[in-house]
């Protein structure tokens, strides 16, 4: 895995085709057979690449992943294709025709930009990573739009490009890095690079403190299929704006600077805001759309008496509200013949799996319920219900 060149030869490519889809349980037998006619190192590299392609399919789709080349860090840290495509489309809509992609990794964002018709300079200082990006541009027929350069991004002149995209490394020897100034390169450097270009997008961790967002930037939190994937700081768009964007869609909720919603008693429906809405601190905007309030001033659950369609939160119909008590919950589940128990929590120290094991030790029954472990007006509470039926004849904003 320290050199992609052997895999790019006709022999290497033929081996990759042969090991495609190999079950991990069969790897030893496959390796033994292939080593009779191929160098052991090449066989190991091909099997390793096959494993990475299988992992990458979730991010890139099977069709692209089977043609691309990956490094272990590249699979872990690259942008999901749907998110990269959304970001590339925003840049295209801004009139951007060329982008300097700094810290390009294996080229996931460069690929999305090129597919949007944007010319890309893709830069990474790691030789293996740059080689993977170059191989991927070629494998997907995008080499004419993607120029891969192995260099230190801090030494690259970006003046000739309409926009800059920076994806700093946010992992180190001890795992994830939470301090933006400990990114590589630091966020402060990325901001300076962004301010030199007409437009820029900086990919940052979704947990970035709001106070760390520069005044010149628009901050956007993005989720895909309900999972928060990243935050992006945009320059040259709307300084100070905050938005939560949900994919697929996209659906974007813009901040309006609303005060915190009022606290209400639990109504018929409980709404669980999307993680991007919560990270963007836009629960108030979502609550206003629902004519709802909070169940507790410190908990991001919205309650309302009416069921309304919204892409920004998942609705549950609440049937019971109980003080936290495992015995009472166990008795209720038994009485209602519950066989499937989903446990969610916010503001509770109890682990969902622990409660599930204690409250439903022997699942039996034909019904399913959802239990929310949370606080209501400061008190530990269990809210019991089920996903609400979709509103018909109503459009989501």
What report would you give on this structure?
With 397 residues, this protein is an alpha/beta fold. 31% of the residues lie in helices and 26% in strands. It is built from 13 helices and 18 strands. The protein has helices at residues 10-19, 27-34, 40-60, 62-65, 72-77, 81-93, 108-115, 127-139, 187-195, 275-279, 283-290, 326-335, 352-359; strands at residues 98-102, 119-124, 146-150, 163-166, 171-172, 175-176, 199-204, 218-224, 227-235, 242-247, 251-254, 269-273, 293-294, 302-304, 313-323, 338-345, 367-376, 379-387. Strands 3-2-1-4-7-9-8-10-11 form a 9-stranded mixed sheet, sandwiched between helices. Helix 1 (10-19) crosses helix 3 and helix 6 packs across helix 7. Mean pLDDT is 93; it is low at 392-397.
Primary descriptors:
alpha/beta, nine-stranded mixed sheet
Strand content: 25-35%
Low-confidence segments: 392-397
Radius of gyration computed on alpha carbons: 25 Å
Largest β-sheet summary: 9 strands, mixed
Oligomeric state, counting identical vs distinct chains: single chain
How far the N terminus sits from the C terminus, by CA atoms, comes to 47 Å
Query: Could you tell me the mean pLDDT?
Result: 93
Helix content: 25-40%
Widest β-sheet, arrangement of strands: 3-2-1-4-7-9-8-10-11
Please tell me what the overall shape is: globular
Structural class given helices, strands, pairing?
A: alpha/beta
